[in-house]
Amino acid sequence: MSVGGSVSSLTYRMKGLPINPKAEPKAPQPIVVADAEMLTSYSVEPPADSAVHPSDAGSVPKHSVEEAARSLVEAGEGAFVPESGNSFAEPATTLVVDMAEIGSEGRGAPNHDSTFVEALSQSASGEPIALTLADAKRLLNMDRPRDAIAVLQPVLSRPDVTAEAWTVCGWARWRMASNREDELENAREAAHAFQQALRIEPQRIHLLSRMIGRCNLLCAQQLNGQERENSLDQAVRALQDARISGQTDHSLDLELAGALYERAMVSPHLERASWLDRVQHLIDSMPAREILQQGWLQANTLWARADIVDSRTAQTLHERASALVQSQLPVLDDSQRDVWLTRLIDGERAHLQRIKGAARIIRLQQLQPAIQAQLDSASSIAPLLSWISVLGDWADSLQGAAAPAKLDETEALFSRIQTMAPENSGELNFAHAYYLRLRARRELSRSGQDAALRQAEQLLERISADQLPQALVQMESAEIHLARARLAEGAAAEAHYAEAAALGAAASHASENEARALSCALTALVALQSHRRDQSRVAPMRLLATRLLSLTPTDASALRLAAWVHFFAGEHGQACEFCEAAWNAGALRSDILPIWQQADTLWAYQLGEPDRHPQWKRLHQRMRMANSTS
């Protein structure tokens, strides 16, 4: 039974469960075709896979493209040996059918002895570059990219270094990055190597700029924030350079469109439409024979547009995207059908966020039978996880006993996932724990809530350090302790709050969880300080609040927590200012008024004659307005 791609994609999904409730659509991954030039210009075949690992559940369906590429590779086992003096020029004429024969030429077959590789490396600085290249190529064809780089290293610093030497180095680094070995570093080094080759041989821009683009796309997958934007910008520029080199290549158009889509998804909403226009222009220019690949990209582009337009237009775009995906499901094989089904569910989930009240429940009820029929035949875990996310959202829309009953439906799905992918027990335990915490919020009895939280805690304890990032587990553990503290009293409650604060602070050192972890730690410390005052807590609370506000300066919850920090520090005027900011940002009256009223009273007492202070009078009036506003 196929569970392809479950490891990497599942980890990202687990990260997304608590962090990204809106289920932002993933970028479609670029399709990469092993074209004739790439297969014949070098003695080492360039990879025919994309810069983004196909193991991700969001990968572009590409089985038909791979078949075409495979036919080219299989024609000569993907390896060509250039004649002397022909390197980095015309296609080689000597075809190697048996990969084992490669090792019988030149100075003999390299073995796996590290001393042999070291000897080759030491001799490289004083011998003709062609001999060193032959050694490096043989090592790379034996799937020893690290050794190939070691042999090449002395040559790369020579003034007579060739473009071919840099290109082989680029392939070796790319191979290592594609195998997820020091992924970010090797992708960057590969891009640098291809850039050096392009500097020497600018006529190879079509191939080399394309690989530079792929390397930057791979880097972007490992980065966040501005670094990710920069890497995507570099990828787009490189792929554009490759595209304008004069060769018509629709597979390159698909790669560029995919890169533009990813860039669109990290841009502000006001800028996103222009990026998506460029994607659409490329889609429209492609021939109809690429229906499968164009359909994938088109559906994602439609869903992306739906996120930045009015509700009526979004409804139309969503219907078009859903219809497009559903039209392809019957003609796909099992693994590809699961990829498209997962995207369909994620698209529905994002659309449901815009529907409120009874209309949302009706849509969910209509959707469930159709999706359930597809899930019954799923052969991988990705669509099951996506539907679990929908069930979690659905439960949030329900009241009373209906909410935990809806979350009960996730139990059967988790059991099925555990059977399908037992090797992913860490990720699955994390997901299960998260949904048990959600269920605890919906349980009607305190005993039911505590039982669900205890079970969630036990699941997290089973996750080893090599299964998931420690910060991710610490973050969820902190949330569970925070929930258990609210059910407890006295010393037991304080113990849970203290544990939540410690775990949240520890988890905040991971950038992907920093804001959420800081918020959890501060919430716990505020509760502790409310239970029992301890001025030694104020300084660390102030540091956490400063970090949180730097990340989320307009978030209502962050502003409210900052108000509490200033309140406990005796800075009641500043506490009132943060209360007003939180109210302006959308904080609920029930959340903000208790501290605002206390801070207002104490500030007035500190001032002695508050009516003579314009700032107090203004904020006092704002507090009264907040109190009277429904």
From TrEMBL:
This is Tetratricopeptide repeat-containing protein. It comes from Pseudoxanthomonas indica.
